Amino acid sequence: MAENKPSGPVAIAGPAANVARPGVLSLNIREKAALYAAYMPFLRGGGIFIPTARQYQLGEEVFMLLSLMDDPNRIAVQGRVVWITPEGVQGNRTQGIGVQFTQDDTGAAARVAIEKILGETLASSRPTHTM
């Protein structure tokens, strides 16, 4: 019986395949309460929860364009999916993903901008999309 061997590179499905072509997400947050609910300060370097019905894998790389409050400038930041809230989860939580900002200047800029807006609200014990 003859074996079928690939003659060239083989595409591998799964999280590793997704890293090569990051998704692009756009998030517009106009209210401080919505920013508080989305921000993930417990992640090293910070992160943000993005409501979405699209399926992502843990570790998948994404590129985000964040519009915060009334600032006309968008913050471009890269990150990795570290949290997934599936559809229909207990407690009626919003479906979406949590993305940890990269440990670089763009990630730091996003974290600083968000924490500047939130100020003392960061110490609140109100529930968020993730905790």
Characterize the structure shown.
The protein starts with 14 loop residues before the first helix and ends in a 13-residue tail after the last helix. A five-stranded mixed sheet has the order 1-3-4-5-2. The protein has three helices and five strands; from the N terminus they run αβαββββα. 20% of the residues lie in helices and 28% in strands. It is of the alpha+beta class. The model is unreliable at 1-21 (pLDDT under 50).
Show the helix and strand layout.
Blueprint: H1 15-19, E1 23-29, H2 32-38, E2 47-51, E3 61-68, E4 75-85, E5 96-101, H3 105-118
Parallel strand pairs: 1-3
Antiparallel strand pairs: 2-5, 3-4, 4-5
Residues in helices, as a percent range = 10-25%
Which structural class fits the helix and strand makeup?
alpha+beta
Tell me the quaternary state. single chain
Order of helices and strands: HEHEEEEH
Please summarize the sheet with the most strands.
5 strands, mixed
Calculate the mean pLDDT score and round it: 80
Number of strands: 5
User: Helix segment count?
Assistant: 3
Give the termini separation. 57 Å
List keywords for this structure.
131 residues, alpha+beta, 5 strands, 28% strand
